[in-house]
Amino acid sequence: MKRRADVPADGHDSFSKLVRGHVKVRRSYEIRSAGELLAIEDARSAQEALLLYLRAHGCPEEEFVTLRPDVIAWGGSVFRAVLASSHLHVVDRKSA
């Protein structure tokens, strides 16, 4: 399972960033396919998390088929984004 490098150091599964005077809430989403956990992406929505994951793996966006806001099909596979379980968080190896 991979976790993107932009996860906050405190490891919380949601956090806020102040951008141009607006607070943008980001949450951690599990990216799943065929029942397997593939990655965790931090995003503003499930759909954004899916797009980040698929784009990072070189999937051409014009081939995506959006089935629901939290489900995208590509290359014969169906990818789903769900809010990450609260027990999943980053462990700081320096303090562990």
Topology:
Elements (H helix, E strand, L loop, with lengths): L1 E2 L10 E6 L2 E12 L2 E8 L2 H11 L8 E4 L2 E4 L2 E7 L13
Parallel strand pairs: 1-4
Antiparallel strand pairs: 2-3, 3-4, 3-7, 5-6, 6-7
* Poorly predicted spans: 7-19, 87-93
Q: For the CA atoms, what is the radius of gyration?
A: 14 Å
The SS-based structural class is mainly beta
Total number of beta strands: 7
Number of helices: 1
Let me know the average pLDDT. Answer: 78
Molecular shape: globular
Keywords for this structure?
mainly beta; 7-stranded mixed beta sheet; single chain
What does this structure look like?
With 96 residues, the protein is mainly β. It has one helix at residues 46-56, and strands at 2-3, 14-19, 22-33, 36-43, 65-68, 71-74, 77-83. It is globular and about 30 Å long. The protein starts with a strand and ends in a 13-residue tail after the last strand. 19% of the residues are buried.
Short description:
The chain contains 1 helix and 7 strands. It is mainly beta and 96 residues long. The longest helix has 11 residues.
